[in-house]
Amino acid sequence: MKFMKLGTRPDTFYSEQATRSLVSDIPSDLVIKIYDTTYLLHKSSLLPKCGLLRRLCSDSSDSENVPLELHDMPGGADAFEICAKFCYGVSINISAHNFVPALCAAKLLQMNESIEKGNFVSKLEAFFSSCILEGWKDSIAALQATNKLPEWSENLGITRKCIDLIIEKILTPPPQVKWSYTYTRPGYTRKQHHSVPKDWWTEDVSDLNIDLFRCILMAIRSTYVLPPQLIGEALHVYACKWLPSITKLKSSFNSATQAEESKAVSRKILETIVSMIPADRGSVSAGFLLRLLSISSPLGVSPVTKTELVKRASIQFEEATVSDLLYPSTSPLDQNFYDTELVLAVLESYLKFWKRISPGAVDKRHLIKSIRSVGKLIDSYLQVVARDDNMPVSKFVSLAETVPAIGRLEHDDLYQAINIYLKVHPDLSKADKKRLCGILECQKLTPEVRAHAVKNEFLPLRTVVQLLYFEQEKDSKETTSSKLQKSHDLLLGAKKRPATRDSDGKRSLVNKEEFKREEVTRRISHAESREKSQHKTKRSDGKLALDLEKKMVIRGDNEDIGSEKLRGAKEQRMSSSKSDLDAKKNIQRARSKKSEHGRERRR
Description:
Residues 478-603 are annotated as: Disordered. The chain is mostly helical and 603 residues long. 62% of the residues lie in helices and 5% in strands. A 5-stranded mixed sheet has the order 2-3-5-4-6. A hairpin with a 2-residue loop joins β4 and β5. α15 (303-315) packs across α17, α17 (340-357) packs antiparallel against α18 (364-385) and α17 packs parallel to α19.
């Protein structure tokens, strides 16, 4: 940080009670009062450089040594003393930290070039333009100093010039950043080969008060140069620096007066940060939003701010982790350790948002994946809060039941949460156990978990009986389905048998047989496709009826084919018998002719 040294004389100012003076052989003839401090000085040193004091002294007679009251001095007694030391030629150091009050006091005292060349104001303005506005940290420090004198700084143009310079440097591409900056993120070690991070400016800007910080950030957002994620990172850094943690906030309730003052400051910071969060999803993390929400109630923020936080957190709820939800309860009415009401409020808001966009969604796979991620998150959260001795069954069940059925593909995680709760709370009544286990669906448990649940001594008998009944019903369905599968395999084997011809090789019968087999195959294929299109939960007796129908179709077709064969064989036998009869008649005719011929020869 740069500074300007003025004057060469040693500092001989001293204090005596509430009076400030300097060692000198000349008696003081100028008395100046600033609040509770009185200065005993000399007109010969101050009047040639201070136009205000020259005018005030000229109005009074020389014989009167009336104190001059300068209670409106910007920067108070400290700023006036810097100006007085300059008049005496005492060595002083001007930096970005004391520049603002020194310039404001010099302006009030009218230490301009019109009074004397090379006066204090001109030197301060030259230092401001050539040093402070050229440096990154100097401009930040000078802008922060304007917080104590906002009106004076605004009127003199200090605030505007510092803000413009800071914005200009923030918008500078990182490869062109050559000045020093503060960056203390975990895992980052600055070396020469390291490139400048995109958020290099966030920590230094977080030193400013909330009003100046907001002014800079809103100006940056209006340029649309930096991405929303970078704006969100700056908000995150500022919140981590100035907002209290939930633990510190609970402990601060002990001192009421001090707590109210700090709560008012923190409340303003929180509400300002929420108002500056970019609308783009992902500009800040879900964990950051949940952290702000966790301290919103104890700080007493406005309902509008709290509603906005719940809405923003619910939109990104699927991105949260279990650690993002683990905040202690700050309500004096809650005996449980964890703030489950916060999680329930965000979950309900998420479900409203999910149901609103679900009907018109083009690709619902993402929505299903989202709600199942939230369901898994809630079940994992329940496994943690179940270990709380003071967690009531009603809150546990209410949070578990809020997740819709589509949000849980399996109930294994939910069973683990219930099992932990039963172990930690062994004295639960039968009614509470029944209510707790009533949210569990046996058919959504994996076989391994069901086997564990059947042997779980903490589960109520009703739940165990349901599990056993489901196991028995499942075994019977598996047995039936295996039998049906065997019948179906036999049908497929019959369908693949090769076609045969009759003994005489008649093609008409073969063509009929092939046609009928093709018809049977077509019906089976149609039945199979119709079976696949039906609901997965159709009862197995429907499948049995369908397979019996297939058998009847094939049996009927085989009977038709067999009857065709019998009619063909019968016709063959009739034709063969007819030919035998004709041969016999021909033999008899030949014999009769032969006998007639023998009789004629005898004659």
